[in-house]
Model the fold of this input.
Amino acid sequence: MRILKVRGLQLGALVAVAALWALVAGAGVVSPTALPGPAAVAAALGGLLGSGTYWQAVGDTLDGAVTGLAVAVAVGIPVGLVTGVYAAAEESSRLLVEILRSFPVIALLPVFLLVLGSTPGMKATVVFIACVFPILLQSQYGARSVTPSVHETVRAYRIPRLLRFRRVVLPGAVPSVMTGLRLAATTSVLVAIGVEVLTTLPGIGHMIMEAQQAGASDRAYAYILTAGAIGYSITLLAQYAEHRLLRRRPPARAGEAA
Done:
């Protein structure tokens, strides 16, 4: 019952926002060019759904986002776990990580354009840099969450390091790793679209700019809603995966609920 109540409240909030949007657009408070009504946007979206150009743009955006995110996962999780387990590795890399993660990734876009050019690989690289640090830091935090007593017990039984990593560190780090993945997954789409807006690369961002330049604001908003729907879908998938993994994970420390 509680879940149904929460869903009802969420749906009610969406309806209220749509009604307010329609009221503001219908009253002429904002120019129709700047804010078309929800009916016009829905009609534009309906027309786009049957267009191959629309699905090509979605595919281009997802291709860059998924490629960059996959590389970020392949790099961020192992590095984060290793630096979380070994204090010397964490201390030696801390300054470098802090410096690199402090740079706004979009501000570095001109550098990547000069080095890599306006290519899909450049988009994936920017996505990778934006996503790797949340994954790395959350993995690092998760590796540290294993209590010292567990580490001492493992050492006392002389369990091999690789087995210790697989059976102790990795299961204990799963909640934090999944949090990093959820944040990075949403970020990957947003950054990919941002790169497309600022460059000539194909994708949702590029289609938004083309629609704005053509004065088709309803089509631009349809693509913006598409970007929001993709981000929300990714969040739901990440939450589902996290729930499944955590449900199968055995308790990592004394007193933890099954």
